[in-house]
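Researcher: Please predict.
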Amino acid sequence: MNFSIQISPLWSLLIPLLGGLAIIMVRVRSTRKPTTLRKILIPPLGMATGFLMFVVPETHIPVSWALGAFAAGALFFSIPLIMTSKMEFVGEDVYLRRSKAFFFLILILLAIRLVLHDVVEQYVTVMQTASIFFLLAFGMLVPWRLAMAYKFRRLHQERSGAAV
């Protein structure tokens, strides 16, 4: 079974740009509604279905590449997101606080990702590039969302501790 796909360079640029804009729009809308632990933890669970891509042999990469991509996402991409994600109580509900730094950070991370994508794609197949960048994104998302869940729980504990 051969899954070779021809993707024009325009699409390789356009799709990540649209994804970045979608993240910004979702983030803006999420600051208008209260957040819950469920809303924080569902995205990594939903994204985990992407591991099904590895059923296709063309997506296989060495384990060292996979670990490196995940680690790069966790160490270099998630930390700035964790630092710019703040929460606060508004009444009885927890809201994500809107941060201008977050929007600039998303744009910077998107630019870095686009440059890295072009570099990586020169050395490996399109399918392997997809695998690497999926793992990079997953490595970014999981620690970021776990940190948000920790902040959410700590905020609730502080409030319940203050009420005692």
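Model: Strands lie at 86-90, 93-97.
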